[in-house]
Specification:
The chain has one domain: Rossmann fold (3-Layer(aba) Sandwich). It is α/β, with parallel strands linked by helices. A 5-stranded parallel sheet has the order 2-3-1-4-5, sandwiched between helices.
Length: 227
């Protein structure tokens, strides 16, 4: 099973992806979490380029770099893991390209981008995508809070794109969610983390029964020290 997490920077999607990974492992499932861009040596190097605030990258070059990193991740990590029966979680996938490059950068029509993305992934599409939604102002405040106490907030190349950019990204995500309601589950990111996680977990349990048709693996009965 392949699950992706989407949302604008500061939405809380990465936190929810990690919470789900931890829950799946605690329940005895073989699960792995990848981030985009990243997950392979090539993809991590591409990530450094894409987030470098000192580097000028044209919009189309940006799209191609994200796509190159994704193609490598799918070929080297995701497909082999799926073939081995693992549950794959991905912090961003091709919906990010449609939202950020298609919407935020005003680069290309959605239909063209979808066809292109399917070429990049060899037709691989997440079985479920969780879209964690918050307003642009809230997301900006959350990003600012990431800085250590007493230190000024620093922004990577994508985060420095500005409010209008993120408004376009959010609008693109809305369009995607309305176009694919069966795949994309919208979540109110202003809710407490625990409530969002339980909404995701309840949905994942239903998906696991539907996809695998079997109960979850037995949990380990060994004792653990309190932490």
């Amino acid at each position: 099973m392949f699950i992706s997490f989407e949302g604008i920077d500061g939405s809380g999607k990465s936190t929810q992806a990690q919470l789900l990974l931890d829950r799946l492992k605690a329940e005895g499932y073989d699960a792995v979490l990848y981030r985009e861009p990243g997950g392979t040596e090539l993809s991590e190097r591409v990530r450094e380029l894409l987030l470098d605030p000192e580097l000028h990258i044209t919009s189309f070059a940006e799209l191609l770099l994200f796509s190159a990193a994704r193609a490598q991740l799918v070929s080297e990590r995701i497909r082999p893991a799926l073939e081995n029966g693992q549950i794959i979680l991905c912090d961003r996938f091709f919906d990010s390209t449609v939202a950020y490059q298609g919407g935020g950068r005003n680069l290309g029509e959605f239909d063209w981008l979808r066809d292109f993305n399917l070429k990049v992934t060899g037709g691989l599409v997440p079985g479920r995508t969780y879209l964690v939604e918050v307003d642009v102002a809230t997301a900006a405040l959350r990003r600012a809070r990431r800085a250590p106490a007493g230190m000024p907030a620093t922004e990577d190349r994508m985060e420095a794109a500005g409010q209008a950019f993120y408004e376009r990204v959010a609008a693109a995500y809305d369009r995607l969610a309305r176009a694919e309601p069966d795949r994309i589950m919208r979540l109110d990111g202003s809710q407490p983390l625990e409530i969002i996680h339980e909404q995701i977990w309840n949905d994942v349990q239903a998906l696991l029964v539907r996809v695998r048709g079997t109960p979850p693996p037995a949990r380990c009965s060994c004792t653990r020290e309190a932490r």
